[in-house]
Records
---
Amino acid sequence: MSKNEPDLQRMAKDVASVLAASLSRDLPEMQSVAVSFLKSREKRLKQLTALRLKSAISDAELLSELEDEKLALETKLLSLKVISAMAIQDAANAAIHAIQQSILNCLKIL
């Protein structure tokens, strides 16, 4: 490698480092949304099970209620998708910045 070529091994390490830092920063929020949803629906799911066991609702009613739960879960998962997309965009921006810095350092243009 000449002085005028970027150090690809160092660049790869820098990119990996910024990607890990950026994505791990958003992971707790993603996990929090998922856990919160499950906790908020636990009582309702137990209630539906109990109602069906007592024959207080029919199979069709249970399936209809579970379809409503599915829609609620899909809504929460879509919010995670937005969070994930933002996290990925932030990570990509950080990675490109690391690559630019490596190239600019090689060219001595700071």
---
Amino acid sequence: MLELEIGFVLFLCCALWSRVLNERAFRTLDDAQKLALIEAFSGMRKYAMAPVIAIVAVVIALPQAAPDYGRWSAAGGLALLAAYFVAKDVMVRRRLASVDMPDASRRGFLRARYLGQLGLILLLASIVVAAWRR
């Protein structure tokens, strides 16, 4: 079960480094740009984690509910998560483009976002690998 520990540590590292990158990008904005950025994403933040939590629950619960199809349901959950990330990325890029900010800050926010997503994918992949090795 070393896969789970490695996946969790990688997730934490990605989440912390993502936060650092996000803060660095946020510091480069002036007050008007910060306000515009917060207003642009205020509607998205309210329920942003609900689909991710549902997908994670599916990835964890399906292998236990249907042991014969556990491997494929977990892999399908990862594919669903990747599709969600792509759709969400399109929305985030559009909202970032609507805010007047330097390109370096925009790239910093996107890098932080991708790093956080990578951490979550690595965590769930470690769960899938652990389930396959049972």
